Structures are given as C-alpha cells and as structure tokens.
C-alpha cells in the first residue's frame, strides 16, 4: 500500500516541477520577445531621429538665410554642396553644407577664401545628399542616412525678388 502512495506522490511532484519549468520557460520566452520588440523600436526611433534631424537642420538653415539669390548649389573641392551667401558688415560670406566622409558638414567662411572639404564641422552622420534647384526656385534636398534610408525635403524660399 505504501509503494502505490509513493508512486502517486512522485507523479504529483513531477507534475508540479514540470508546471514550474513550463512557467519559467514561458516567462523567459516572453521577456526575450519583449526585448526584441523593444530593440527594433529603439533602432527605428534612432533611424528616424537621424533622418529628421538632418533634413530639419538643412531646412532651418535655409529658412534662416532666406534672401533672394542667396541659396544655390555649388561645390567645395569636387564635392556637391548647398551654398548660402550672406553679407555681414559689407563682407560676403558663404555657408557650405555638404557630405564628406560619412557626415553632413558645414563651413562658414569668407566667399573669396579657398576651402577644403575636411575643414568643415561635422553635424550628423549621413551617407549622401543630393541638391536640386528648379527654375521655379524650388529647392529639393534628398538625404540618405547612415543606414541607407532616404528622405527628401522640398523647400520653397519665401523671398521672391531683389
């Protein structure tokens, strides 16, 4: 009589232990899935932040310097650049915005000064920037971030004539 009771008691213990292991396994699985989902959300937010920061920076810089004829597409060395010319106390200065060595770069210098691409200030990581200015003065800036995602912004300068 005692052996049957021990066997039954052993089955009860195995059942409780297997239930405990099943619970622990499910808890670990849910935590792992949650961590994966969280990591994807963080990566997506970081990518969106980089794209939006770069395009917003460019748009705000163009809005700050919105004068008729001041914005153009140019070059710094052999690298395409967005150029903004402005006059400060009668001296002409140019802001160059371009992509060099994986970064959006910016240089503010006198217009008559020869500048090399590496002399710029790093702003944010970026793979490339494409600038187009239409005949109707609509500026299209397409930026590609470090992950290869592309964002295009269209800017219509408010200044219309000198």
Overview of the molecule:
- The relative contact order is 0.13.
- The longest helix has 63 residues, at 2-64.
- This protein has one helix and eight strands.
- It is rod-shaped and about 105 Å long.
- The protein has one domain (1-162).
- The chain has one helix at residues 2-64, and strands at 71-76, 79-88, 91-100, 103-110, 121-125, 128-133, 139-144, 150-155.
- The strands form two sheets. The protein has a five-stranded antiparallel beta sheet, covered by helices on one side.
- By secondary structure, the chain is α+β, with helices and mostly antiparallel strands.
| Overall SS class | alpha+beta
How many whole angstroms does the radius of gyration measure?
30 Å
Number of helices: 1
Order of helices and strands: HEEEEEEEE
Instruction: Please bin the fraction of helical residues.
Output: 25-40%
Range of strand content: 35-45%
Could you give the order of strands across the largest sheet?
A: 1-2-3-4-5
Summed up, the domain count is 1
What's the multimeric state?
Answer: single chain
The separation of the N and C termini measures 108 Å
Shape: rod-shaped
Taking all residues together, what is the mean pLDDT?
85
Number of strand elements: 8
Largest sheet: 5 strands, antiparallel
Poorly predicted sequence stretches spanning 5 or more consecutive residues: none
